[in-house]
Design brief:
Layout: E1 3-7, E2 10-13, E3 18-25, E4 32-39, E5 46-51, E6 58-60, E7 68-73, E8 78-83, E9 92-100, E10 110-111, E11 115-120
Parallel strand pairs: 2-11
Antiparallel strand pairs: 1-3, 3-8, 4-5, 4-9, 5-6, 7-8, 9-10, 9-11
Length: 121
């Protein structure tokens, strides 16, 4: 049974940093593209960042490029999202997603339950 468990969310002031973690069980990261998505109140879920299943490429939404970094640690079967220079508009529930031999976009094979990130001005 595949499970994705996010953690690391919280309340931070604008300009601050947070690191989100996504602990995966029941799958091997080297076979899954892993991504982060977010959903703000009243808005649709949107793509944030993704790392391909080979680990060779990373893609970011324009809104977070240069501020967020996605990485993975195979030994811990965990994917991270380092978020720096946070802005109030980054406030959202952040979700981890996994796709087998594919890159998560609007759809994915598996989703986590989400972790809340709130950025105060």
């Amino acid at each position: 049974q595949v499970q994705l468990v996010e953690s690391g969310g919280g309340l931070v002031q604008a300009g601050g940093s947070l690191r989100l973690s996504c602990a995966a069980s029941g799958l091997t990261l080297s076979s899954y593209g892993m991504g982060w998505f977010r959903q703000a109140p009243g808005k649709e879920r949107e793509f944030v960042a993704v790392v391909t299943w080979t680990g060779s490429k990373r893609y970011y939404a324009d809104a977070v490029k240069g501020r967020f970094t996605i990485s993975r640690e195979s030994a811990k079967n965990t994917v991270y999202l380092q978020m720096n220079s946070l802005k109030p508009e980054d406030t959202a529930v952040y979700y981890c997603a996994a796709s087998y031999h594919n890159t998560p976009r609007s759809s994915a094979d598996y989703w986590g339950q989400g972790t809340q990130v709130t950025v105060s001005s």
